[in-house]
Design brief:
The complex is a heterodimer of chains A (617) and B (342).
Chain A: E1 11-12, E2 15-23, H1 28-42, E3 45-51, E4 66-74, E5 87-90, H2 93-99, E6 108-112, H3 118-124, E7 140-144, H4 146-154, H5 161-165, H6 168-179, H7 185-194, H8 199-218, E8 226-227, E9 236-242, H9 243-258, E10 262-266, H10 273-280, E11 288-291, H11 295-307, E12 311-316, H12 318-334, E13 338-344, H13 361-366, E14 376-378, H14 384-399, E15 402-408, H15 409-413, E16 415-419, E17 468-470, H16 485-500, E18 511-513, E19 519-524, H17 528-540, E20 545-550, E21 552-554, H18 560-565, E22 569-574, H19 579-588, E23 592-596, H20 605-615
Parallel strand pairs in A: 1-8, 2-5, 5-6, 6-7, 10-11, 10-12, 12-13, 13-15, 14-15, 19-20, 19-22, 22-23
Antiparallel strand pairs in A: 2-4, 3-4, 9-16, 14-21, 18-20
Chain B: H1 30-44, E1 51-55, E2 70-73, H2 79-89, E3 94-100, H3 101-107, H4 109-118, E4 122-128, H5 163-169, E5 174-179, H6 183-195, E6 200-205, H7 217-220, H8 225-228, E7 229-232, E8 239-240, E9 246-250, E10 256-260, H9 261-264, H10 280-286, E11 296-303, H11 309-324, H12 329-333, E12 338-341
Parallel strand pairs in B: 1-2, 1-3, 3-4, 4-6, 5-6, 7-11
Antiparallel strand pairs in B: 5-11, 8-9, 9-10
Helix pairs in contact in B: 1-6, 2-11, 3-4, 5-10
The chains are: A alpha/beta (617), B alpha/beta (342).
């Protein structure tokens, strides 16, 4: 091949959605991540949607083993990882088969031609090669012999062919990098760093990456490249971030701003484990992490840490919340600060460990015996996980209560540019440990602050404030064991009233859209971007709609009822069977209509758009 | 156990006793354990504010309410986990766990073995009365097979746990047994457990006079103790009997068994060494009596050194700070590729 620059000018695009798909051993998450990072550094706005099987290595070449990574990059502020891909990179027949239903006619498909041989075709259930039988005529299909060229590129390096073959994902990355005019030096540096000490792997990956890039430039398969300019985002400094990382940073920030050292006790569970991994790296911030023997131990350790005056934190997903429910009740009864992070995934039971869902709202609200209220906060974007974590800690500390922070698999693994705050602007989280007796020379552990109803936090080591607390009902004030019926009712009401007072401390409802709208869309959590994207399109067609996205799910903002009653129709899109819509109906007697999706995947904004159109016809 | 602030003011049992009315059944063995602990406290040299008692659920788990220290009466079985959280957060505190045979060996068995293997610096007192008392008399994981209770009218089928075998199997670094009829022995044992660095596990034979009265009477009646209690003393041959005529020896398989000293000679009697790293002999001693109806060893079975969990956690923090300096939030947040939009 003679190196030769493409003559055609790059074609300018506003946005593109690319989906990398291959076998779970093909390194698609890595490839997608890398492309994302390069695009972020280039200044595009972006959003990502990783999708991978629960099995670490499902049988190679099968549909069950397909892993994909979708990234949406644009020169303007985008809201979602994109409904459908404009370009599908399919590393084998199974990847094509598993994803083709999502690819719209006219879109491009780049396929690793070498993988489309008899065995792989059979494993994917193709009787004939789809690259040859005309079944893909509706698409622009580019078969590329990725494996062959990768092997060729690595031939001189002394890499075993089997190992060289594994570099083909970097070939794909190189090709796509060429196609979208991404800088290459960053990726080369990254490969050098990532595979430091493994010279052969390093060399093979770089060779494959360059081969992919050069292939695009020299093979006259593509008539031009594309260019997506940096996005004109709100001014500020940005970095790329996933939800789990942002959440970890939010916790560390809250620890720093409160002066409370973190004890994070967790049991490994998908898709929450990365928070434990991340926090365990930052011991120089005084973060203590314990990988507990089980979910119950994890929250119990967090309770112990909070009793001892640290910030107890436990991170999990739905099955873990089930197990922690009794201990959560103890934390409610002890009235100690604690944050439980539930990175929701598809349920019930083991369900869909790697797929997203929002079906734990009722669990967070009601999943404990007795009257057991606690504040619930939901993050609504990957970078928003930082703020949500910070806020969860603030409320937990101020009101001496466990807080459930809901995120989900999409937020956890999805990435977007984050206009990060200046550390100097982060508010302090005041902590007032009790230091003196508070009642006639004695210490009453349940004598409450009149404004917040929070009880004093007296930590061991403080002379004169020794006290015993437990899960048995206690007398208001003294905290002594008490079974008196009147006292129990008082305590039940006080615990609820205390949590309700969080309302005085949270922002009123922020309505986005027309005051005289015919329809109000109410969402929570990770649907935010998808709803906003749908709203843009609907407004473009002249309809009047408004959107409210709820961050505080318990208690709701105090003006929520008034806002809801202003609109004739209410639509609540959720990745569950209508949990928020039921809460709104029960609380406010409004006709909140549910739009439900439980497919282990986010909404497409088009689905929400269609429902809005239907309801505003 | 270094405490936060030791002062020279002498403290008394009263300083460690709360004003709460003790509500166990009259005649319960728990009273004597409580008295032993309360009156031992001044000798341990730790001020009340630096002590935390943590319990689960059950009769014995009411214990913390009666101590004028910090205390958490947590939920069923989870005391070792709550205590681990306290110890990890505050390695300076003196943390005790009060549990029972149901709480610690049934619903909370998992947390107990993991606290032991991690070697968290906890003093764990397991009140073993071989019955569920608080729920009014069901068989427990230490009840003998065939036990007739409300939930087993035809006799229990379950094979019981031997708590010391379990603790030694989990490689606990300190394992001991005492009983509620001998305050002096309890206090000596608790004192040793408290002084131990790491998880110290003490099984206390404790009589439930309402639902399982006399469970230990075959070994604990005053006139039987001489022949039925095998007192373990560091560095001494293990001998017992009213005339010290009996001893414990190892057979050809290394298993402890009872012998007449006259038959084998004193030199064949096992010399007790609680510091043996290998747990095999301690384990074998824990199996000497199948049930508390035949000669039963009491005292310290095992006392070895191993790094303490929360000290290691703290050491990792210190090393991280040495290596990377104290955490810098700005540097953390602003790591990776940064770009600016004007």
């Amino acid at each position: 091949m003679t190196p030769e620059t493409t003559t055609a000018q790059p074609l300018s695009l506003e946005r593109v959605v690319i989906r990398f798909a291959g076998d779970s051993g093909d390194g698609m998450q890595l490839t997608g991540d890398r492309f994302t990072d390069v695009s972020a550094a280039f200044g595009n706005d972006l959003a990502t949607l990783p999708n991978y099987p629960a099995e670490i290595r499902a049988p190679a070449g099968t549909i069950a083993g397909v892993s994909s990574f979708q990234v949406h990059i644009a020169d303007f502020d985008i809201l979602t990882p994109g409904d459908v891909p404009n370009l599908l990179v399919a590393m084998n027949p199974a990847a094509l088969k598993a994803n083709i239903a999502d690819v719209p006619p006219g879109a491009a498909i780049i396929a690793n031609q070498d993988a489309f041989e008899e065995r792989n075709l059979a494993k994917a259930g193709y009787a004939v090669n789809p690259l040859e039988d005309g079944s893909l005529d509706a698409f622009r299909v580019y078969p590329v012999p990725m494996t062959t060229i990768t092997l060729e590129a690595c031939k001189e390096l002394g890499v075993k062919p089997r190992d060289a073959e594994r570099s083909k994902n970097f070939f794909a990355l190189g090709l796509i990098s060429w196609m979208y005019n991404r800088p290459t030096d960053q990726t080369v540096t990254w490969i050098e760093e990532k595979f430091k000490g493994k010279e052969l792997v390093q060399a093979a990956n770089i060779a494959a990456f360059k081969a992919g890039f050069n292939f695009g430039e020299t093979a006259e398969l593509f008539d031009h490249t594309y260019e997506i300019l940096p996005a004109k985002l709100k001014s500020g400094r940005y970095r790329n971030i996933t939800g789990n990382l942002a959440l970890s940073y939010g916790m560390i920030a809250a620890s720093q701003q409160s002066g409370l050292p973190i004890v994070c006790a967790s049991y490994p569970i998908t898709p929450a484990s990365d928070i434990l991994h991340e926090l365990s790296r930052h011991k120089n911030f005084g973060v203590r992490t314990v990988q507990a023997e089980d979910e119950i131990a994890a929250i119990s350790m967090a309770i112990g840490a909070s009793f001892a005056g640290n910030l107890g934190l436990t991170t999990t997903s739905g099955p873990g919340v089930d197990l922690k429910s009794e201990a959560l009740g103890l934390a409610v009864s002890l009235e100690l600060p604690l944050v439980l992070v539930d990175v929701q995934r598809g349920g019930p039971s083991t369900g869909l460990p790697t797929k997203t869902e929002q079906a734990d709202l009722m669990l967070a609200m009601y999943g404990r015996h007795g009257e057991c209220p606690l504040p619930i906060i939901a993050a609504d974007s990957p970078s928003g996980c930082f703020d949500a974590a910070f806020e969860a800690v603030r409320i937990a500390v101020k009101y001496r209560t466990p807080v459930i922070l809901l995120t989900d698999g999409f937020l956890a693994n999805g990435a977007e540019p984050w206009r990060f705050p200046d550390v100097g602007d982060l508010p302090a989280i005041p902590v007032d440990f009790a230091s003196e007796p508070n009642h006639d020379g004695a210490f009453w552990p349940y004598l409450r602050d009149p404004e917040t109803l929070a009880r004093p936090w007296a930590v061991p080591g403080t002379p004169g404030l020794m006290h015993r607390i437990g899960g048995i009902e206690k007398q208001d004030g003294t905290g002594n064991i008490n079974y008196d019926p009147g006292n129990h009712e008082l305590m039940v009401k006080l615990r609820l009233e205390k949590v309700m007072r969080v309302q005085q401390d949270i922002a009123p409802v922020d309505v986005d859209g027309d005051v005289d709208a015919d329809l109000l869309v109410v969402g929570w959590g990770s649907t935010r971007g998808f709803i906003k994207a749908a709203m843009r399109n609907v407004r473009g067609s002249g309809r009047k709609v408004a959107h409210v996205h709820i961050t505080n799910l318990f208690p709701f903002p105090s003006d929520l009822g008034d806002v809801l009653r202003r609109y004739p129709k209410i639509l609540v899109p959720e990745m569950n069977m209508g949990q928020l819509s039921r809460l709104l109906r029960a609380e406010y007697l409004v006709d909140a209509q549910s739009l439900s999706k439980v497919q282990g995947a986010p909404f497409r904004s088009a689905e929400i758009e269609a429902k809005i159109m239907e309801m505003t016809n | 156990m270094a405490a936060v602030d030791e002062t020279a003011v002498p403290l008394t049992r009263k300083d460690y006793s709360s004003d709460q009315e003790v509500r166990w059944c009259p005649g319960c063995g728990d009273y004597s354990v409580l008295a032993a602990v309360q009156s031992l406290m001044p000798d341990l040299g730790v001020r009340p504010e630096n002590i935390v008692f943590v319990s689960g659920i059950g009769c014995s788990s009411r214990f913390p309410y009666y101590m004028n220290t910090y205390g958490v009466h947590s939920i069923h079985g989870r005391a070792p986990a709550v205590a681990t959280g306290i110890a990890v957060a505050r390695p300076d505190l003196d943390v005790w766990v009060i549990t029972g045979d149901g709480d610690g060996l049934s619903i909370g068995g998992n947390h107990l073995i993991h606290a032991l293997r991690r070697n968290v610096n906890l003093t764990i007192l397991l009140f073993n009365n071989q019955i569920y008392g608080l729920t009014k008399g069901q068989y427990s994981p230490t009840s003998e097979q065939g036990k007739i209770t409300k939930s087993t009218p035809f006799g229990s089928i379950d094979y019981p746990f031997n708590p010391l075998s379990l603790a030694i199997g989990a490689e606990a670094t300190f394992v001991a047994r005492t009983h509620d009829m001998d305050r002096k022995h309890m206090q000596e044992t608790f004192k040793r457990a408290h002084a131990h660095q790491g998880a110290a596990f003490v099984e206390i034979y404790q009589n439930c006079n309402v639902f399982n009265d006399g469970a230990f009477e075959e070994i604990l009646q005053k006139d039987k103790r001489g022949s039925m209690l095998v007192s373990l003393k560091q560095g001494e041959p293990i001998i017992f009997g009213d005339d010290l005529e009996m001893g414990v020896a190892l057979n050809e398989y290394g298993e402890a068994h009872i012998v007449q000293i006259a038959d084998v000679g004193l030199e064949q009697i096992l010399v007790h060494d609680e510091h043996r790293t290998d747990p095999a002999i301690a384990f074998s001693l824990s199996r000497l009596a199948d049930r508390p109806t035949t000669p039963t060893p009491i005292g310290v079975f095992r006392d070895i050194e191993r790094p303490v969990y929360e000290q290691e956690v703290t050491a990792q923090l210190a090393r991280a700070q040495e290596r990377s300096g104290p955490g810098d939030l700005r540097k953390l947040i602003e790591s990776g590729n940064i770009w600016e939009v004007a």
